[in-house]
Amino acid sequence: MNLIFLGAPGAGKGTQAEVVCNEYNIPAISTGNILREALKSGTEMGLKAKSYMDKGALVPDEILIGIIKDRLAEEDCKNGFILDGFPRTIPQAEALDKMGVVIDKVIDIEVSDERIVTRMSGRRVCEKCGSSYHMLYKKPAKEGICNACGGTLIQRKDDHPDTVKDRLDVYHDQTEPLKDFYSKQGKLFIVEGQEEVADTTKLVLEAVAKQA
Ligand code: AMP
Fold first, then answer.
1. Is a pLDDT exceeding 80 seen at residue 46?
2. Atom of ligand 1 nearest to the CA of 31
3. Domain boundaries, the chain
């Protein structure tokens, strides 16, 4: 099953994608994580992406399209995948079509801007392995320390409130039109993000299992 998880930054796409990928045994591909890894390794692509990411802007389409093309060609994508954070623009969605990638469903997680700003200020990530936590909703066992690898938890630069507002503007402007794009193809499934992560997960799993 080839899935896209759509939604504003901070709507919980990554957390939900992790659950669904375990349930269906398919990889969850986060373009944000791929870019952050590239940045950590100091590759040319990572350094180029940094200036856009720090501002909350989108990294140019051609870079992302190249990343996704390479990633989807890997063996583990043969039986399906979840795209988390791609496409984020109409040209990126069109590029998937041109690659011959058939998307089965697009799960759109809806959360109000107001709630997103509150949520994102509590988000923390492990600087070592990238696992994500939340000071209210997904606390680590030991404050400031990653459960998975013992690394230090930090706040991403682009999760600071001013940058979050910029990212939301970018989302409404450039990414939200994808809802219409996929709705016209009958592939869009809307899930209302709930207060409790587990309640959203239940709705997401139902939407994934639903016949299109
Ligand atoms: P995320 O972790 O998905 O919120 O992504 C973090 C940042 O990476 C975004 O704010 C963008 O700067 C960049 N990024 C990730 N995915 C894409 C994409 N599909 N197109 C353009 N920029 C992206």
1. yes
2. 16
3. 2-26+79-112+164-209
Q: In what order do the strands lie in the sheet with 188-192?
A: 28-30, 81-84, 2-7, 105-110, 188-192
d(CA 89, CA 207): 23
Contact 211, 29 (CB under 8 A): no
- pLDDT over threshold 60, residue 212: no
Helix segments in the chain, DSSP class H: 13-24, 31-40, 44-55, 61-72, 90-98, 113-121, 161-170, 177-183, 197-209
Q: State in Å: Cα 131 to ligand 1 middle.
A: 17
Segment 163-175, tens digit of pLDDT: 888 999 999 999 9
The residues that are catalytic are: 13, 88, 123, 156, 167
The answer to whether the CB of 158 falls within 8 A of the CB of 116 is no
Residue 3, amino acid: L
| CA-nearest residue, atom 12 of ligand 1 | 53
State residue 138 phi and psi, 5-degree precision.
Answer: -145, 75
Single pTM value for the model: 0.87
Residue with CA closest to ligand 1 atom 2: 32
Kindly state which CATH superfamily the domain 2-26+79-112+164-209 is placed in. Answer: P-loop containing nucleotide triphosphate hydrolases (3.40.50.300)
